[in-house]
Structure of 2,3-bisphosphoglycerate-dependent phosphoglycerate mutase:
Amino acid sequence: MQRRLVLVRHGQSEWNLKNLFTGWKDPGLTERGLAEASAAGRRLKAAGVTFDVAFTSKLQRAQRTNQLILAELGGRAVPVIEDAALNERDYGELTGLNKDDARKTWGEQKVLMWRRSYDVPPPGGESLRDTVARTLPYFVAQILPRVLNGEQTLVTAHGNSLRALIMVLERLTPDALLQRELFTAAPIIYDMNADSTIASVKDLGAGL
């Protein structure tokens, strides 16, 4: 039985382009982001990947990326399940601010701490640990059982919500997780054993 899970961060969003903290705000994809998403679908098709079910967040940048990937794969319709548990980390008072302006307001070190520490949240927002606590139970209850049952599963979400899943899948420490970069629209393919350990992992990379 093939137990396959594919994780994809959404394509470039309008706020990524403007260097803004996005969090739970809902900007769309840029033209580049649309092209990146379609390119991700083509790379998956070239690798012979198909899906039985897809999961995504409640935010349009992830939903649109998911749509474009599935469109490139063609074939039968794939059920898509949307849930806020897969939303990006909530950046609280940083949301909507240019990252350079945030550094001017709070200082380089404090903003770096909010962005790169595991358990220190920005004002009114979530730490990465908070994001793990929100995302992981949903993954364990709703996504992982389908993968282990042999359903080829796509998860299209966000940098930090996907890091929460990668932390568990790859058994990373919090420090190692903080160093893990996820590029836009770069599929990561996990083939899993029956005991939910990883049999193999392949990063298809980003690019148009």
